[in-house]
Amino acid sequence: FHSSSKLSSNHKKRCNFGIAFDIDGVILRGRVPVGGSPQALRRLYLDSGELIVPYLFLTNGGGIPETKRAKELSELLGVNIMASQVVQGHSPFRNLLKKFENELIIATGKGDPALVMSEYGFKKVLSLEEFASYFESIDPVSQYKRWTTMPQSDRKEPAMPRYNVLSERIKAAFVVSDPVDWGRDIQVLCDVLRSGGLPGGANNNQPPLYFAADDLEYQAAFPSKRLGIGAFRIALESVFNRINPKRLECVTYGKPNPFVFKNAEVILSQLQSSSRQDHSKNNRVPGSHPFEMLYMIGDNPSVDVKGAQQGILGFLF
Ligand code: G3P
Ligand code: MG
């Protein structure tokens, strides 16, 4: 990074580079900032707090809405982070709104996956935990579990299903973040996917299944890497393909998909355009980006580095 004073003296010129930061293993380990990440981020602002280097967070993690994550990151890192600077694995699920806005869908993963999907505009979302609670004995070992994965706000016994889950089919399932109860989730997802969205029955029309990312492992607080959402995908797929005649079909989002990096470029351009120093945007060729260089700073070679190398926009890593 340049020093703060150097950036201050040059800030009248438009910044010709942008940065995408990975979060886990680069900015944070668990909830603890890595090295001098808060100090490094502070150098991207003027003393007045104005952003001078367009940057965003490009993480395959998630589980809470971008607005909340921005607030949480601002507190942990000591800079004012906007929701538009937070791109999580599940952020592109928004683009599926046209398809499923008014359809019954389920969402699972750590945090509050149903809230994430509701904030994107999906009208009929159930967390997998709530959905499972309407089917007696769907999880045959639930009585041995002394914990719940349900967010505090939802922890009340549902008297009546919010939707008619016994007759209305689930139209899509979303793995929004790292699943917490793998055993239950594999069981219930197999039920939903093998029955055409109505557990207990049999129907070969598998509802679409979407994963927010496909990381096999990621760096959290523990010294060695932890199994990620991609490991869960392999576990689910292995079981499903053994018990179902048709192979599992699913779509994975997140890095290293090129569209994630393309989208990051668009956001970085918008961040730069909203800066009062940028007077050049009217002269720009449509579709081109205003940067000489875009940097991706990540810790996962098969996700961050691969994505940056494949990115249609010339991200360096
Ligand atoms: O669950 C988080 C993990 O899959 C990766 O996060 O920030 O390293 O892309 P990140
Ligand atoms: Mg990482």
From TrEMBL:
Signal peptide: none annotated. Pfam families: Hydrolase_6. One of its GO terms (cellular component) is mitochondrion. It comes from the Eukaryota. GO terms for biological process: glycerophospholipid biosynthetic process. SUPFAM superfamilies: HAD-like (SSF56784). This is Uncharacterized protein. It comes from Gossypium mustelinum (Cotton).
